[in-house]
Amino acid sequence: MRNTFFIALLATVLAHSGFALASDHGHMNQGAMSAMHATLSHGHMGVGMVNRINMQHHKINLTHGPIKSLGWAGMTMDFVVKDTAILKHVKAGQKVSFEVLKEGPGKYFVVKITPLR
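RESULT FIELD:
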């Protein structure tokens, strides 16, 4: 338990200082790994318009403005959502703010979405 705290603390310090963190996941339990990844991950905020929602395939199509933290220009694209419950309060044609997490090369997920009107 003490090692988990120090690993999470180290991960936080390194994440905010710009250094990469390499760890031996073989010696960490799943809870410790999840806590560390939650500490390291940060969302990227966007604003856009909902075009389509596909609950069956866990996708939402958005036309969004630039997302500077990702280096993206404004565009229309499909996003995967891990939990379709976040889509229950939005509909096509609605302006929204949303949070995107990057979980690997080319793997982006909408994790939060909020109607703006």
